[in-house]
Amino acid sequence: MLIWIILIIIPMLFGLYAQFRIRNAYARNVEIPSRGRISGREAAQAVMESAGIHDVEIVQVPGELTDHYDPMNKRLALSEHNYHGTSLAALGVAAHEAGHAIQHKVGYSMMTLRQSMAPATQIAAGVSNFVMILGIFLISSSIGGTLLTIGAVALGVICLFQLVTLPVEFDASRRAKAQLVTLGIVDRDEMPGVNETLNAAALTYVAAFVAAMGSLIHILMLLSGRREE
User: Fold this and answer.
1) Which pairing describes strands 75-79 and 68-70: parallel, antiparallel, or unpaired?
2) Which alpha helices (H) appear in 2-108, and where do they start and end?
3) I need a labelling partner for 114 at 20 to 30 A (CA). Which of 16, 160, 169, 170 fits?
4) 223 pLDDT band (50/70/90 cuts)?
């Protein structure tokens, strides 16, 4: 029971805390306008142009915190508040996504690795939960062990993807913070709001890795227990 709490419950609570923190940080800093009053779209464009990037389309997408960079189509997507908004949160998120575009342009190795892993990770994410749950129910049978093994492999792929994601996200935020100040988009004394937003976002990726790793260790322990019977 203690092991289950450590490997499953605590990572789940950590994930909930990370989600709470990003939403709280974003909600607070989206209400603080930057002095420069330029929009998230303009900030993303300025950061990319400073790196010599002129072929990335910036588009608006629905939802909140749905911002992302699509390297396949060279498209930077910003949610409505971050596309039009001039807040510290909007500028931080927009510059962060522009940081991914810079990574793509310079051939940042960890981003390239993550891109190459994406198809396998999508497949693993699609089958892992179903296979593991069924394997746990059938753990006493041979088919249960096979299903758990498949689930462990799928979780291993997901864990590796989440691990590779960490330096990609941290590096994009580092680039964003530096460019916002260097280009004069944000004054240095405004950076705490940007830092709070981006640091909280980074925590969600840490939580995702911890949760995946906890599940993997749990499944491996179940498999080890079956072999010892």
Assistant:
1) antiparallel
2) 2-4, 10-29, 40-50, 80-84, 88-106
3) 16
4) confident
What is the Cβ-side half-sphere exposure of residue 142, based on CA atoms within 13 angstroms? Answer: 0
Positions marked active-site: 97
pLDDT band at 143 (very low <50, low <70, confident <90, very high): confident
Res 129: pLDDT? 79
| CB-based contact 78:94 (threshold 8 Å) | yes
* Helix axes 109-137 and 88-106, enclosed angle (nearest 10): 100
C-alpha closest to that of 60 among 85, 83, 44, 91: 83
Cβ 73 vs Cβ 125: under 8 Å: no
45-100, pLDDT tens digit by residue? Answer: 999 999 999 999 999 999 999 999 999 999 999 999 999 999 999 999 999 999 99
3-state helix, strand, coil in the chain (%, to 5): 75, 5, 15
CB under 8 A, 24+ apart: contacts of 189-195: 190/34, 190/35, 190/88, 193/28, 193/29, 193/32, 193/88, 193/89, 193/92, 194/29, 194/88, 194/89, 194/91, 194/92, 194/95, 195/92
Q: Is the predicted pLDDT of residue 229 greater than 60, yes or no?
A: no
For 161, the token pair is: 């993807």
Which residues lie below 8 Å from residue 48, measured CB to CB, with a gap of 6+?
A: 54, 56, 76, 98, 101, 102
